[in-house]
Predict the structure of WD repeat and SOCS box-containing protein 1-like.
Amino acid sequence: MAPERVLRDLLRVSGEARVIGELITGRDGNNYAPGGESWKCAFAPDESRFAWSCGFRKVVILPWNRYKNCLLGHRHRGQSDRNNTNGEGYEVFAEKINIDAGFPVTSLAFGTGTPEQELVPVKREYWTRFNFSKDLILATGHNNGRIRIWDPYTGKLLLELTDHMKPVTDLAFAPDGSLRLVSASKDCTIKVWDMSDDGNMFKTLKEHPGPIRSLCWSPDGRYLCSAGDKQKVLLWDMNSYSLSKRFCGHYNNVLSCAFSPDGAMLATASCDTRVIIWDTSSGEQLRVLNHMNPPPGVIYMSGENNSVVRGVGFSPNGCHVVTICCDGFIRFWNLMYEEDGPESVGSALPGDAMLNCSFSPVGGAVSVGHASGSVVFFLAPTMVPSLLHLSRMSVRRSLGDITARDDVVLPHTLKPYLQYKQW
């Protein structure tokens, strides 16, 4: 079935996801030289910066707090973003930082040792000594197994970390300000680095039988999820650095994982055409988001198919999930609805493939990196969560799964809601 017809069919039952901005390399997404892909994009926790891996060793850092204001006009696909100015005529791209990372970039991540609410963007001077405990830092992972740490205000190389034997596939900083960096690799290991100790690698986690594809921290920094080949989804206790739980249910390699903002749910995207949303505490499957309708049989799921789900992410309010798929579409799923289909659908750049997706920290936009190295920004769905849902998130964030505790007495009808079995 032609992609145009599939999109028309999807839009009959859902809305259209709106494109609000593009960063275009000009390369062909279907006929490109290896190394030109945008494998990862990242927002700084305070939304001050946006890092874009645009291929061929190049990383561009933009002032996202200014650039996002240029997107508020909801520009349509095809409009140029090259000379964007804000309302005062300020040229946004005058502040961009270009980094030649030295090697092809396979992943990147922002980190900071300062609590997010205290992190204030500053203009760095060349004589200022870098303070890992206070300043924003950028880590890049490379195809030769190296990890490089950068000053995102100047583009200066600060550290190089070497221990992986194969390409680094994902990076993630702990959200608790501890400056712990975790890295995943095709060498089947997870490394834990202490950036407050000059990047000392102090732990190696080994349980994956194949390459690891994705990492994500729980919002409180207590748990780490790792997903990879051979259907593996593992949950690690990062206080004891031990394996805590295995999630079993996928039929093919798992490519992406993401926690909900309160840590109560975990979403995993797989080559089996599905996204599974799990209860983090019990490991129970709460929802399954199918990217083929009707869902294929298990034999088809475990083999090659055209509906591999490459990326997944939760919105900051926990009401929506975004997914990108090899069928060329981005989908926004409203978890508040019981319907199985997506709420809105968008398409990749013509003749291109989507490789990664990320919600901005406070919502409003979703970035999608492409095989050509380009990035497209979609308008994130807007929704005012109910007071009941906000209360549930607050309880789960601060107290965890209180439904499993003997010292808390709850009404019988409230437990399914707190466990996200009811919306």
About this structure: Residues 131 and 196 are 9 Å apart (CA to CA). The first strand starts at residue 15 and ends at 16. The chain is about 10% helix and 40% strand.
